[in-house]
Amino acid sequence: MRILSGVQPSGRLHLGNYLGAMKQHIALQEEHECFYFIANYHAMTTVQDADLLRSHIRDVAIDYLAFGLDPQKALLFRQSDVPEVTELAWILSTVTGKGLLDRATSYKDRVARGISPSMGLYSYPLLMAADILIYRSDLVPVGKDQVQHIEMTQDMAGHFNNTHGRDVLKRPEPKLNDAMIVPGVDGQKMSKSYGNTINLFDPPKTTRKRIMSIKTDSTPLEAPKDPDSCSVFALYRLIATPEEVEALEERYRAGGMGYGDAKKLLAEAAERLLGPPRERRAKLEGDPDYVEDVLSTSGKKARAVAREVMADVRDASGIVISKDRDS
Ligand code: TRP
């Protein structure tokens, strides 16, 4: 099975990003052929500061490697190392009705949030479809908000094949990431825009303080507590072992335990999760050549696949290039 996903480089990641997507991406490397790329062309629709874009790309790459993405098992590359995707996006645009893009809800959401409605933002689903189709991907792990884009990709693959009378592009399926609710320190969904995140790579003290600041209700210390309505417990459930979760659940229900104790346990579990990647990240930061090597080596492998598919796409659609154009 070929798995593909794109990661938007949007700054430092938080626990919600990790549990919601990255952890699953990394786990899939054990069983499947995985292509993960950092979507720098997509990021240009929102990040227009060159230095910031460059540093975001590097940060995402290091974050994935620090959490255990193994470049021997999975490809991790820059979208821009496979220039054929922009060519395919154009070709797809010629077989895609404008009405399809008019229906994209994420475009409308982004514009509603104040992002400038550029043609790039509007064409975002075309580039995303090209990302997927150019590797003949089978499965695309994404969050709920991206499912419509995968459905559009399926449509575009069908339109291309129908228009040109050949089964060139493969219809991908979405693989929904586990829809877990990761609460932030204020109890709302953890999100950068709410300012309630627990970051993956803060110094241990900062993370601990952040955890100690999680909002809890005013149930008195002696009284039994409801684990199911507590953000501390919800987070603990996501990162502690099943035995630990069960033990804490009993203490909640028994009463006589303050939220401070639960937070301390959560802080310990968080440090167990975040400590080793923090150290690996520090090492990777000191070895930019290694990180660059991972990205460029993966990029070459991905591009080799993309070139084959593009040769079929050009052949089916009548686009001719010089034999030595890419050499
Ligand atoms: N749009 C995706 C997001 O915002 C990122 C992305 C770009 C992507 N191209 C992709 C995801 C291809 C999956 C497949 O998260």
CATH class of the largest domain: Alpha Beta
Q: Please tell me the CATH architecture of the largest domain by its name.
A: 3-Layer(aba) Sandwich
Rounded to the nearest angstrom, the distance between the terminal CA atoms is 30 Å
How many DSSP helices?
13
Descriptors:
327 residues; mainly alpha; Rossmann fold; Tyrosyl-Transfer RNA Synthetase; two-stranded parallel ribbon; 5 strands; elongated
Structure description:
There is one protein chain. By secondary structure, the protein is mainly alpha-helical. It folds into 2 domains: 210 residues, HUPs (Rossmann fold, 3-Layer(aba) Sandwich); 83 residues, Orthogonal Bundle (Tyrosyl-Transfer RNA Synthetase). 55% of the residues lie in helices and 8% in strands. It is built from 13 helices and 5 strands. Strands 1-2-3 form a 3-stranded parallel sheet, sandwiched between helices. Strands 4-5 form a two-stranded parallel ribbon. Helix 1 links the parallel strand 1 and strand 2. The protein starts with a strand and ends in a 10-residue tail after the last helix. The site of tryptophan (TRP) has 12 residues, from strand 1, helix 7 and strand 4.
